[in-house]
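user: can you give me the structure for this one chain? tokens are fine.
assistant: on it. calling the predictor now.
[tool input]
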Amino acid sequence: MNKNTKIIFFGTPQYAVPALEKLIESGIPVISVVTRADKPTGRKKTLTPPPVKDIAKRHGIRVLQPEKITDEFINKIRQENPDLFVVVAYGKILPKKLIDIPKHGSINIHPSLLPLYRGPSPLQYQILDGLTKSGVSIMLMDEKMDHGPIIANFESDILESDNCETLGKKLFQIGADNLPETICKYIAGDIVPKQQDHDKATYCEIIKKEDGKIDWNSSADYIEKMTRAYHPWPGAFSQIEGIDVKIIKAKVSNLTLKQTFPGKASFENDKLLISCGNCTTLEVLIIQPSGKKQMKGSDFARGYIKNND
């Protein structure tokens, strides 16, 4: 690839950091980084830059943090005469008149095997659906979300232990590891983007806080998936013995509790067990009462469950 090729990187959270780092390590010229505004975090509301900004500053790359994608901003980017945009978890939808600016278009890393799981929450939905196989798509962006032609796909397993956080780290790292070579081949014309099969497309909605509220009439298997899909946010939450809790880690138990009902907690065989729908049982391994630290389910049960054996 020509050393004069000019790339602008769009990204914000930690998920986007490996991709930016790989581009820098590979000597691919990133002339600017566009990221979200600094945000107040923690109890003291300390103004904190996005992780991508830290990496860019460390390497002397110019950082742009527009509050909105305005015509003024678009004109500023156009004046840079970029050859390619690389977009990784930026956090805003980019308008067509922006993504069409670069000579070679705009590419995006998406953590699913498109056309499956288009939309803002592919990690959570893949876990909730019980998938054991997933992957990463590097795609050419168009005006529709996750709709453009595929440049490359890379497969990966979803482990039974994977939660949203670990799956995201794994998939975005795979995308990052393959990004420099994919870009070079694409710009050289060695890869011809392939149109998606839109008839096979599936979609996922944005996750809301209330999605994490547990319905104990659901099966234990589904609730266990919730604990992984919604970690770390919004978490899988409920009340046990009138106490607000988040269930951090759980597994399906082979025990069937007698004379109980969905949502009823029991302490048996040194285990915190909760009855769920379809006569299934969830064993809670790690739990976090509101305002307190995480603890073992058995320790919670000793202190709060009335039917201790």
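assistant: here you go. The first strand starts at residue 7 and ends at 11. The CA atoms of residues 205 and 282 lie 27 Å apart.
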